Amino acid sequence: MSAILRLESLSKQFVKDDVGIVALRDLTLGIEEAGFVTVLGRSGCGKSTMLNLLAGLIPPSSGTVTYRGEPILRPRPEIGYLTQSDTLMPWRDVRRNIEMPMEIKGVPAPRRRERAAELVERVGLQGFERHYPRELSGGMRRRVSLARMLVGDPETLLLDEPFGALDAQLRTDLQAELLRLWEGSGQTVVFVTHDIEEALLLGDRVVVLGRLGRVVLDRKTDIPRPRAADEMRVDPGFVALHKEMTAALAEGARS
Ligand SMILES: Nc1ncnc2c1ncn2[C@@H]1O[C@H](COP(=O)(O)OP(=O)(O)OP(=O)(O)O)[C@@H](O)[C@H]1O
Q1: Residue 111: exposed, middle, or buried by beta-carbon count in 10 A (0-12, 13-18, 19+)?
Q2: Is 43 near ligand 1, meaning CB less than 6 Å away?
Q3: What's the CA-to-centroid distance between 6 and ligand 1, angstroms?
Q4: Which of 6, 180, 212, 227 would staple 25 via disulfide (CB 3.0–4.6 Å)?
Q5: pLDDT over threshold 90, residue 127
Q6: For residues 231 and 179, what is the distance between their CA atoms, to the nearest angstrom?
Q7: Domain boundaries, the chain
């Protein structure tokens, strides 16, 4: 397997009030280029810590994280990261939030405008360019965050429960939009969730993490796309995978 991202014997320990908290212990995982991998795990098993390490936001306590064979020591422009909570700037409107990564890179204003307009269209926010985050719904804010992540054309996308706080219908819509944006793009996606159905509907490979990031199950799913949730729920193959994931999550919580 040619892994674009590789975690090798990775451990992460935090220190809080002089007490060590182990978040990940000895995690080894390779992520293939252009694939859609979902990482499934209960709350607290170290999923966000793993993404923060992949994003180069925090250093490992031991072990290595590499991207195309190079150690990840700081955030890289090739890797986009969509965190669980909103990090939009409240004082910037939609367009200027989307333009922000380009501003940091020093892209000239006309090019920024043009690129932001493309992204606004891709995520379906036409007409809202001059709105501020507080004037948008939760789903729209997620779209802005998605657009801001995509604006620099990252090769790899890290998404941390990006649609967790949304209602079921909106979540389904945004999942479909994400797949539409990803399909044929050649981008590598690592999508973290604690929802089994979401993991199976989106990923081609599901990695189930247990306590301290232990890999309990690592499974290629081979479910043909498109995958409609209502059809999948009655599909025997999907139901069997769902059961397998449920058992893996339960096992991960035990040990
Ligand atoms: N900055 C930090 N300082 C101290 N402890 C931390 C820090 N970040 C994470 N932890 C601890 O590391 C463990 C793993 O946390 P992490 O956020 O990675 O889990 P998670 O699987 O993403 O959880 P959730 O699904 O609830 O977001 C937890 O015990 C958490 O309290």
Answers
A1: exposed
A2: yes
A3: 21
A4: 212
A5: yes
A6: 17
A7: 1-78+165-180+188-255, 85-153
